[in-house]
Specification:
The protein is mainly beta. 6% of the residues lie in helices and 18% in strands.
Length: 67
């Protein structure tokens, strides 16, 4: 049995920052990948980026975007 909730996805998490080439103001709705900003990269790793995730990923630490 899975306890995963299908409404808890990266695309509606406040820690997910969508990335893409689109100039669309609603990038969050259309982006397929982004960066999870829940846990920052270590300061010692110069040049390391935030973790890349897919739109439909789920990590278990979801926090809804405030409307």
């Amino acid at each position: 049995m899975s306890y995963e909730n299908k409404s808890l996805r990266c695309h509606n998490c406040k820690f997910w920052w969508p990335v893409g080439d689109s100039k669309d103001e609603h990038l969050r709705e259309h982006a397929v990948r982004g960066q999870c900003r829940r846990h920052p990269p270590p300061a010692v790793a110069a040049g390391q980026e935030w973790a890349f995730t897919q739109r439909e990923d789920w990590c278990g630490e979801h926090s809804h975007v405030m409307s």
